Amino acid sequence: MRLLSELFSTDSGRASIAGIAFMIGMGVFFIRYFFRKMEEETLAEQQKAKK
């Protein structure tokens, strides 16, 4: 419990939380971005194959 109170009450703890949240958010963004690009490429290849 003491660790959680230090994590949320000290400046370095808040910076750690912000860094962790940023990294998780960046990971989610890149996963979505890469999957979207892979899907677009697959659709483009399928359209080329139909022509």
UniProtKB/TrEMBL annotation:
Q: Which UniProt keywords apply?
A: Membrane, Transmembrane, Transmembrane helix
InterPro entries, per the entry = DUF3149 (IPR021494)
Organism domain of life: Bacteria
| Any one Pfam family match given in the protein's UniProt record, by short name | DUF3149
* TM ranges: 15-35
Output this protein's name.
DUF3149 domain-containing protein
What is the organism of origin for this protein?
Answer: Undibacterium piscinae
